[in-house]
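User: Here's a chain of 474 residues. Predict its fold as tokens.
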Amino acid sequence: MPSRSRNSKCSGPVDRRTWLKIGGLSLGALAAGRDPDLAQVLAAENQAPARDNDFSVILFWANGGPSQLDLFDLKPGAPAEYRGPFSPIHTNVPGMEITELLPNLAQLGDKISIVRSLYHNRPQHSGGTNRFLTGYESTAANPASAEFPQIGSVVAHQLIETQQDIPLFVGNTPFYGGGPAYLGPAFAPYMPQPNLVSRSGNNRYDPVPIYNTGNSTNSLNVDERVSKTIARRRELISSFDRMRNQIDTSGTMEALDSFNQLALDILMSSRTRDAFDISQESPRTRARYGNTHWGNSLLTCRRLVEAGVRFVQCQAGYRLKKETGRTSNWDDHSVNSHIFNSYREKLPQFDQAVPALIEDLYERGLDQHVLFVFCGEFGRTPKIAYQDASGRPGRDHWPKAMSVLLAGGGLNMGQVIGATNRRAEHPVLRAMNSNCLLATIYERFGIDTSHIFHDRAGRPIEILAEGEPIAELV
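Assistant: Prediction complete.
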């Protein structure tokens, strides 16, 4: 990493954010017999990038891996066994083309950017997710949970001092290969009604709502009676905590108590419950997004960031018709689905919900502070495969080239960044490690990627060891 000049200003009193960082550092370091250097922590705090306290991310995660050749990097001149049946169409930006299945999105070319030249080297689903969302390779080929903290967990950890009565990090369900790793469960996404099977690699579960469905098992349904019960329990716990804190002199218990208090505040917060309640939106707005899983999900995502959530991850699950395929994700192998019929079936809903969100962000003035990201853990093989007995077409895993759709975030929109060869096999212009996308997002948050965490063994690990922000965007 490049060296940073030291700031000679007096650091002043140790604030809550620094205290929590020191506490997190000491828990890992002391376990390994190390002594944390307070001076270094305070110096790093003064050298941290300027922070945008309004910046948020909506990550619409196409788990399974979307096809670059059939969405944002079409190759009409490639041989038939590569190019697929879809034609490119022009957007309202000269030279920017996308699939003909997204005509509404094509009218918003000036509000989006497409990065066509990202890559990494992990072709497994959860191994690829771990690699893409953490910036590090996992030891296990397909870890159920990430071995390093995913970006949403890092954001929640680094912005903990901004925590109020709404979660910093929200998701609809655990990602296969995602998670907070050694940052601990306090920095996992808040999920109102997750399906834990989603972390198993099973790809046949129904899409998981992030919006309030009114289901009695929904953790957002906390009525007044339950709130009073929680309050009484909190008073009882507090009486034990006072005695415990008199014994504890390290301050660790006090830090843990603050997390407990925050969790209860969030659970009982009307602001949190209201943010998930799309019934508060006008019929016109709801119709604009569409009364579909994706429409309701992305409308909820907009409500969440508007209410103060800093990172929303929403798995873009879709239940295909039985005759189209057996999966609920984007893993369109021949044995799973007819990839082209799969896209014909689900992209019309995508082309309503995603453009509605992008336009909504711009109309509400959120485009400077909210970044929408659509991608998956990798791309798909350029050459079409026909492994299934039915002979239907599919594409397999391909981390050597992938496309990412971005909108807003105060970044430079209306452009295509990078290019792949004539078969979309690998980048030939602006080839970038996928860490460059993470570095771009961290920079917008004002998070220093050289910040050190300590894993459970006490080993120091930077947020990112490599990757620079994408210059064309920032």
